[in-house]
Amino acid sequence: MARPVRHLLVAGLLVVALAAVPTAVGGAPRADDPSTTAPAGANPDDALRLNQIQVIGTHNSYHELASDPERILRGKILGSAEDQFEYEHRPLTTQFESEKVREIELDVFNDTKGGLYAHPLIRQFTNGGPYDDAVMDRPGLKVLHAQDVDYHSTCLTFQACLGEVKRWSDAHPTHMPIAILVELKDDIIDTGGITFVHPEKFDAPAMDRLDAEIRNVFPPADMITPDDVRGSHATLEQAVTTDGWPTLGESRGKVLFLMDNSSLRTTYLSGHPDLEGRVLFTNAQPGDPDAAFVEHNDPDVAQIQALVEQGYVVRTRADSPGGEAVTNDTRTLTNALASGAQWVSTDYPVPGYSDGYHSGGYVAAIPGGTVGRCNPVIAPATCDSAALDTNFSPAPRAPGIDPPVGALAPTTATTAPTAPPPVGSGTAPPAVAVPGVASFTG
Length: 442
What we know:
Number of strands: 10
Mean pLDDT: 84
Radius of gyration: 22 Å
Number of helices: 16
Strand content: 5-15%
Oligomer: single chain
């Protein structure tokens, strides 16, 4: 499901806007293997490892809906494909507390001087008014989906997002470990002669700043790092395929960070072979010395089960915006859960989020209603899902998108909002749609 953000025709949109753990060597045994059965009365925190659980996560966990004028403008270009931007999440602490989420995704943009993302073009050309300059003008990593196109976030900076996680974690020290998937965004989306904000590249110094921002919020005792897992083993991969991951007891109240970008793995490893001294687990492949985490967004049951049985941790997806929720198609969700992937990501973790699609109420949740569950592939037979995490307080139904703008656009407006004329010209030129597909990912 590494579907490029269903990011279809973003280029054309902006032109119009501007114009107008395993216990045995060789891998973890399956749940039905008698050797995994813990002694009667054993403390589950000692008998279960981090990789022997399964939880729900959220995709682009910071994401808010754009303003109505922005959504209408995009919808007039994208048509029903605008549904792919039509998802929203409540604040991170609400997701942890009331939506049983234990994995989140943050998209981060490098902004060493500050102000690079303070004036989104689509906001300017829909008369969106002032943005939060006091925050966006400060140096530091920013959290948003796509520069100039889709920027609304419940927490504007990486530090702010991490601060939310830290405060909730400190208040709930018995929670299962929270995984934070970090996608580093630096793609350029210029097209049709139009120049948009050029993100700063994530070079080795930027990677150091990324780690520093994380350590500024989380002290070593609050994190699970590659060094923690590797221990005395020669490589990280050797560690996870032999001794395995920390126990649940050793992992409670902690966070771990995962890198989404396999393309930037080598840069992150530069000067840190096998991730020595680094914070994030890279998105590597079996056989790599730094292999511990594997992203496998298309939930191929057999392939993911094989990875899980060997001791790797895996993130997969149950759905994507504008996809499964539209028709209440649960086949991908079923495969994701059956695969044993430790983190199953969704945009619809509780009832309400898919209401606008009139699909029958698509929800991606752990079967049985628990916060997490015993991993269906490798958990010991004595594992009790209900005992894994009780940090949960119900909240009112999530706000639905009613209906998606892709359906509203034809009847809500007949013309796109008028764009200001380009600097130095008397009037704006006619809108010209430019075909193209953005290269950034979801």
